[in-house]
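Database export, one record per block. Field names are fixed; values are copied verbatim from the stored entry.
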Amino acid sequence: MKFTIKHWAVVIIFLINACHSAKDQESTSSGSEEVADLGRIDALPLHYQSPEDNPATPEKIELGRLLFYDPVLSGPKDVACATCHHPEFGYAESIDLSIGVNGQGLGEKRAFNEPNEVPFVKRNSQSLLNTAFNGIDMNGNYSPEKAPMFWDLRADNLEHQAMMPVKTMEEMRGVVYPEEHISAEIVSRLNRIPEYRKLFKNAFKDADAITEANISKSLAAFQRSLIANNLRFDQYMRGDKSALTDGEVRGMEIFIETGCARCHNGPMLSDFKTHVLGVADNEKRSESDSGYEKTYAFRTPSLRNLRFTRPYMHSGKIANLESVMFFYEDLQGKELPNSHVSKDRLDPHAKALKVEFKNISSIIEFLNTLNDGKYDKKMPKSVPSGLPVGGRIQ
């Protein structure tokens, strides 16, 4: 069945009025099943869930905020989580590959100190906004215990993810401490700071609360609280038909028709699966990045708050949205930018994309409805270690 513009208008209106509930999705007609094959998109839930073993509390979230901005978690005490995930950039970063330890400055002004033996961070910094909903499917179902993290899925929830950058040499560990010793060093440092001993005790109700597990839980609780779930797109999908213009609605229709929502689907506009696209490696790293299980596949990123999180792709090699769309348009004819990936290995969903030049501006018009600057940007004025807030970013 070939869908016309009129057909798509009817489908979109139906989906909005039905609020995209799971029940309605299961009972759609054969025509709407074709829409299901193309993927469905929806608003985020109004509230997030926490794991049973790490319920959110104000004390835990604020402790996590302090830890997030405190360079005491890094080996050389010069970089914090916030250095590469800064609120100014949507808790991501404005450069292709981050500079972790032995760096100075913020965003595009950041550079390595000299002498330097530390490489750039391996991949582009992803936004932490809405990671509470990672793993959410097209029906709105998700589990905070099973929330895919990183470009290669190597962590399955925020608690698992939180300490990984601390243990990675080029990100926060540096060259002085071996990976197997850094956690004990961080725990020891925090135990020597009276304010942290008090804050951990209040958050976890235990006199000996400063442990690697509790550091992870605090960081995860804070990151989970970083929500931006009231985009104009969300308002529209919840029933406010005035939230988007006719042009933006048409852009959304084309986004689905083109096949973009096969991967960028659900409330996070991500299927949280890995796909082979053949994106170019970043020349700032000496080795080729082979991604998930050395297959050159990488996880579908969310499309929310794209304005804050450029440049794009795992290698940060695509500077703007227009270039992203041209990349997908070129997949049908040109050779892949990555010489390590042959055309026959290209993901089937990517092969099925029908991005046409005439529609690119309309798709981008829709994508711009996914930006929301109203999120938690609160930075502490100081951190218990007394070190510079956010690391050496001035």
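Remark 1: The beta strands are 103-104, 111-112, 274-276, 297-299.
Remark 2: The longest strand covers residues 274-276.
End of record.
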